[in-house]
Write a structure and sequence with these properties.
The complex is a heterodimer of chains A (581) and B (387).
Chain A: E1 2-10, E2 21-28, E3 33-38, H1 44-51, H2 54-57, E4 62-69, E5 72-73, E6 86-89, H3 93-96, H4 102-112, H5 117-130, H6 146-158, E7 164-168, H7 176-193, E8 196-200, H8 204-207, E9 213-217, E10 223-227, H9 228-234, H10 240-248, H11 257-263, H12 265-271, H13 290-296, H14 303-306, E11 322-332, E12 335-346, E13 350-354, H15 361-367, E14 376-381, E15 384-385, H16 391-394, E16 398-401, H17 414-425, H18 431-439, H19 454-466, E17 472-476, H20 484-499, E18 503-507, H21 511-517, E19 520-525, E20 528-534, H22 535-541, H23 548-552, H24 561-573
Parallel strand pairs in A: 3-8, 3-9, 6-7, 7-8, 13-18, 13-19, 16-17, 17-18
Antiparallel strand pairs in A: 1-2, 1-4, 4-5, 9-10, 11-12, 11-14, 14-15, 19-20
Helix pairs in contact in A: 4-5, 4-6, 6-7, 10-24, 13-18, 17-18, 17-19, 18-19
Chain B: H1 2-9, H2 16-31, H3 36-53, H4 58-61, H5 63-83, E1 84-86, E2 91-100, E3 103-113, H6 114-140, H7 143-148, H8 155-182, H9 192-219, H10 230-255, H11 262-284, H12 299-321, H13 323-326, H14 340-347, H15 351-355, E4 367-369, E5 380-382
Parallel strand pairs in B: 1-3
Antiparallel strand pairs in B: 2-3, 4-5
The chains are: A alpha/beta (581), B mainly alpha (387).
């Protein structure tokens, strides 16, 4: 179906320039589900783009070798001529929609292909049924949920008769339920209709169990190609379930929770009766805490000791340190986004806020920045009441890293951004740069911020916000677009900031990330807090939010592979413990 | 028989061309009279028709804006008349005369007469009625469907406009988002800095979005076309440009009452239309695509369009045969005369309100748009039509 013959791709004319893909030779037969994995910037999108001719016809670049889809050479056939063969679905479906309503969007591709009105009508109806969109047919696209939008995007390329679907991180912006919905639709297309599906994804745990085959980009432009299990066995990027299998020494690499659970009898016996809470969930940061060092330089006392009056506002000693939210309500016109919420984000701990899209999580964070007007209620940071003061006073104590972090960046170089941050925060010059160096040592200060990777952008914005030495730091969906190593780094940075006495709050859909960092978890639904508890309590017992390790070792409340690994090491040293499998 | 009637009244959205034809009829009627009774009736008919035949779509909700604009036009026109000499026999209000030092010939305010007010009101009402007619067309016909109904040759232009319409709310959304995000970071700069701080992220966002959209359209087959020779392409452009020019000149002649004979204007328009249609046909051959569920031009469409044409013809006849009804004198003051013919010409525009099939409405009366991962964007709320 898809033949990639000795393809190398580079984006500049210089023959010595780095090859994004180096001599890639892949042959994908009809009807396979292929998972493409690799670190950010390893060339996943380039590989996917090459399959429908998007690279080089649209992006430019120099391609050697040959890519053929169903016998057609992409060198001579631009994407529009392959539209009836290859369908492309991107991470943000809304950005690629051309029309307003579901039905028109499904028909758009067929209109371009000049398919007859009768056939078009029939195919639209079929597609509506296959993807379960019939009830939504005349709905405006903007009013759909993320999962529904993604299904419309899949349907719109399916309707053109494409036999190959190429998806670039189709679930990375979705909550777990919507992601399941999209994956279920995809699986149905693979199994019932026999489509060939190629999907790139950072969150391997979502797709690994279903993929027939895995293409691993190693970062040098080479592709390791093979059955998912074999590639996973040598991959540096693995979902938690594979990591658990490795650490527990399973005979085979488990790809799904089901497989791991069947292999984990011995493991469950080994850790039976052991309290998981005794072991850390993530490895400690290596070396000295450089961020803490950077922040404490030039300041005589650490955060914990600096809790005091802010701009003359009286501190209420009866309230504990951290963020206290009391009866907070926010509405946008007729929509009540947050209803009478009272929670606390304790100092020195990481609080993770979870819930489906539109449940009011982000609004809660924005309300704590002073930017969002409150309907009623108040909040206190380290005892200082901030519910009714302007945003510039709140900013001294609370800082938010928003979901689209790049919105905060506007200067031409990283270095200038840092200097601006120093000036804004009124701190000693050079602080922001020191934090950037500590968070992400690889960033070149002369780079344009827009050219940074997602993870680097996040680190830069985090550094800018930390420059003000806030007492509380809030992050909205920070793991979006981050690969596993970047997420691990972020987890350590957050732990460090909490260890410094700050209150840290993170809104995320990513249950695996929550399992790694959360001290406390708040679950929201329809603007209300429905559950508050420790990570083990909330994640360990939930069917929906449970991380893979908790599902494998259910009903025990283990959350991360590292935690299990640490426990096993100790049990090994203790001759009284049970056998390891 | 009943099945024919049922089929006629089956709820559906009409071809946008029918509503635009009707609205142009309204505008032509308004252009042929300054009689306040007839114009008032016309505006009332537009309002009633919009009220009973519009959907709950956002563009339909914009009709109110056109009404505000019409009121503004009337206030402005009458206000100017009062400001610059509204003298006449029947004085209703005495205002002090204001002279500007150094300009003795310019006199402002002064006595206000009823005749002047009626005269100004009549011509203001004429313009207001035209604005309301355009607003009604906008409210009754989906502007995007209208663009979709354009001939194949104009498809690319249509696509550009459609995308511009959809990108605009996104741009507004990212403006709001960046504006909020900016408050998260203490600002030291003002003025030029402020513009840069907001414009940089918004523009780069817009650029990213357009590239993504262009890429998506490309990979979905947009721009597939049959090859054409350069000669054909040039001929097409020439025909289209000449045709539109002829239509414009002809329309000017028709509206410019008194100077150009009516037959000259009308024949110019006819020639222009023929040339433009030929150009469109020629270039349509190049486009190779189909339309999903095109709006048919069936009986209800012809009824709506016909009422517009009938009113148009009727009013032109009235304005020629009964000039005192169409352009009633303001002196002496009195109730403007109205004839049965003139009333019928206007009232025929009410036919679509009763006979056009009612539009399909969205199943729920109110749809709240909570864009995904919303809260950093303000949710847009589309309220349902009043029941």
């Amino acid at each position: 179906m898809i033949d990639v013959d000795h393809v190398s791709i580079r984006y500049t004319a210089d023959p010595r320039a780095r090859l994004v893909l180096r001599d890639v030779d892949i042959h994908i037969p009809d009807g396979e589900l292929v998972l493409v994995a690799g670190r950010t910037g390893s060339g996943k999108s380039t590989l996917l783009g090459a399959i429908n001719g998007h690279v080089p016809h649209f992006t430019g670049g120099i391609v050697t070798g040959r890519v053929r889809v169903n016998g057609l050479d992409t060198a001579t056939h631009p994407p529009r001529d392959l539209a009836d063969m290859v369908g492309v679905v991107s991470q943000d479906p809304l950005a690629g929609f051309v029309t307003d309503t579901v039905e028109e969007e499904l028909a758009y591709g067929m209109e371009q292909l000049a398919i007859g009105p009768q056939a078009m009508r029939t195919r639209v109806e079929e597609t509506l049924d296959i993807l379960g969109l019939a009830d939504l047919r005349s709905r405006p696209l903007r009013t759909l949920s993320g999962g529904q939008q993604q299904r419309v995007a899949i349907g719109s390329v399916l309707a053109t008769g494409a036999r190959v679907l190429v998806l670039d991180e189709p679930t990375s912006a979705l909550d777990p339920v919507s992601a399941e919905e999209v994956l279920a639709a995809l699986l149905r297309l693979v199994h019932d209709i026999g489509l060939t599906v190629i999907v790139a994804e950072h969150r391997l745990e979502r797709v690994a169990g279903y993929a027939d085959r895995m293409l691993l980009l190693d970062g040098t432009g080479r592709v390791i190609d093979g059955p998912t299990r074999e590639v996973m066995a040598i991959s540096p990027l693995v979902p938690p379930v594979v990591d658990l299998g490795r650490r527990a020494g399973f005979d085979q690499v488990p790809l799904s929770v089901r497989e791991a659970r069947r292999m984990a009898d011995g493991l469950r016996q080994a850790v039976d009766g052991v309290d998981p809470q005794r072991w850390p969930r993530i490895p400690p940061a290596e070396g000295k805490s450089s961020v803490r060092l950077a922040l404490s330089e030039g300041v005589d006392t650490p955060v914990a000791a600096r809790r005091r009056h802010s701009r003359g506002r009286r501190r209420d000693g009866s309230r504990p340190a951290g963020v206290q939210v009391e009866g907070l309500s926010v509405s946008y016109g007729p929509v009540h986004a947050v209803k009478d919420v009272s929670v606390s984000f304790p100092a020195g701990a990481i609080t993770v806020v979870m819930g489906r899209n539109g449940s009011g999580k982000s609004t809660l964070l924005w309300a704590l920045t002073g930017v969002q007007k409150l309907d009623s209620g108040a909040f206190f940071v380290d005892g200082v009441g901030l519910g009714d003061v302007p945003a510039d006073q709140v900013r001294d104590l609370v800082r938010l890293v928003p979901q689209s972090a790049a919105d905060l960046l506007y200067l031409p170089t990283v270095d200038q951004e840092c200097q601006a941050a120093d000036a804004e925060s009124g701190c000693e010059p050079g602080l922001c740069r020191r934090i950037v160096d500590a968070l992400a040592p690889t960033i070149d200060p002369a780079t344009h911020p827009r050219d940074l990777s997602e993870g680097q952008k996040l680190c830069l914005v985090l550094a800018i916000q930390l420059t003000a030495r806030p007492h509380a730091i809030l992050l909205d969906e920070p793991t979006r677009g981050l690969d596993y190593p970047a997420k691990a780094t972020l987890a350590q940075i957050l732990a460090e900031m909490a260890g410094d006495g700050r209150a840290v709050a993170v809104v995320t859909h990513d249950v695996e990330f929550a399992a790694e960092v959360a001290d406390q978890i708040i679950v929201m639904a329809a603007g209300e807090v429905i559950h508050t508890g420790s990570a083990a309590e909330v994640l360990g017992t939930s069917a929906l939010f449970a991380p893979q390790v908790a599902k494998v070792l259910h009903p025990m409340r283990w959350l991360t592979p590292y935690q299990v690994d640490q426990a096993l090491h100790e049990i090994d040293l203790d001759p009284g413990a049970g056998d390891r499998s | 028989m009943t099945s024919v009637v049922k089929r006629f009244f089956m709820p559906r959205s009409l071809h946008p061309g029918a509503w635009w034809g009707w609205a142009i009829g309204c505008a032509v009627v308004a252009s042929r009279t300054v009689n306040p009774i007839l114009l008032g009736l016309l505006i009332a008919i537009c309002c009633v028709t919009v009220q009973v035949r519009r959907t709950s779509a956002p563009w339909a909700m914009a009709f109110r804006m056109y009404l505000y604009l019409a009121c503004f036009i009337i206030v402005l026109r009458v206000g100017f008349r009062v400001l610059f000499s509204a003298a006449g026999p029947t004085v209703v209000l005495r205002l002090p005369v204001v002279t500007i030092p150094g300009l003795p010939s310019v006199r402002l305010l002064g006595p206000v007469s009823a005749e002047a007010l009626v005269g100004a009101g009549g011509s203001a009402l004429q313009l207001a009625a035209m604005v309301v007619a355009v607003g009604a067309a906008n409210a009754l016909a989906n502007p995007k469907r209208l663009l979709a109904a354009v001939p194949g040759a104009l498809y690319e232009w249509g696509a550009v406009v459609v995308i511009a319409i959809s990108v605009f709310p996104q741009l507004a959304e990212s403006l709001v988002r960046v504006g909020r995000a900016r408050q998260l970071r203490a600002e030291t700069g003002k003025g030029a800095h402020l513009i840069r701080n907001v414009a940089m992220p918004v523009l780069s966002d817009a650029l990213d979005r357009s590239l993504i959209l262009a890429g998506a359209m490309d990979s979905r087959g947009y721009g597939r076309s049959a090859p054409v020779s350069p000669a054909t392409r040039r001929a097409t452009s020439a025909l289209l440009i000449l045709g539109s020019l002829a239509v414009c000149v002809g329309a000017y002649g028709l509206l410019d009452t008194g100077v150009t004979p009516v037959w000259a204007g009308a024949s110019m328009v006819a020639v222009g239309v023929v040339v433009a249609v030929a150009g469109l046909k020629l270039s349509g051959a190049r486009a190779h695509r189909t339309r999903y569920r095109p709006d048919p031009m069936a009986a209800p469409e012809w009824v709506v369009l016909g009422s517009g044409i009938l009113a148009c013809v009727g009013m032109v006849v009235v304005s020629i045969a009964q000039p005192l009804v169409a352009y009633p004198p303001t002196q002496p003051l009195g109730v403007p005369p109205v004839s049965v013919g003139a009333l019928l010409a206007v009232l025929v525009l009410l036919v679509p309100a009763a006979l056009a099939p009612s539009p399909q409405r969205w199943p729920s009366g109110s749809v709240t748009v909570t864009a995904d991962h919303a809260p950093d964007r303000q949710p847009l709320t589309l309220r349902g039509a009043p029941r």
